[in-house]
Amino acid sequence: MISFRPYDDARDFDACVSMFQRNTPEYFSVDELEEYTGFLKDYSGSCYWVFEIDNVIAGCGGIRVVENTGTGRLIYGMLDPAYHAAGYGKALLEFRLGQLVKIPDVVRVKIDTSNDVMGFFTKFGFIEDERIKDRIGLGMDQVKMTLLLDDELKQRLLPKNSVVITCKDAF
Fold first, then answer.
1. How many Cβ atoms from other residues are within 10 Å of residue 171's Cβ?
2. Residue 162 confidence (pLDDT)
């Protein structure tokens, strides 16, 4: 069974860091680990969840709303490599987008990702805004992308996520 729950530092920190490391260097740079662990220790202003399959952490990811801009951001989304290419990335993305569409002021969603992963987001309507060559690491470009939340997309996402799952000190 698939479920989402708020991230709990005491319970989830080691599993999330281990997952990050298993996704390095293919999807994250080694240099990003310190920033990620710092985020996990203080994610105020953000919502961060773990994604479980049969009570095993299979992924994690979060959102942040940028005040007075109409912008929501996807932050640190990842799956354990054992769950890649099985449709779970779509579930994690749709869950997070479903949380953002419930926030009335959010009209666009932004993500900073890599050239290796941008194709996944393109399938969901994200558009490349900017690319910074080798920003993440050698051969790993940072790609800034945006998804506009039109009414049709909002309606499609809302039924799947009818309950807002609360998180620590967000918004």
1. 13
2. 52
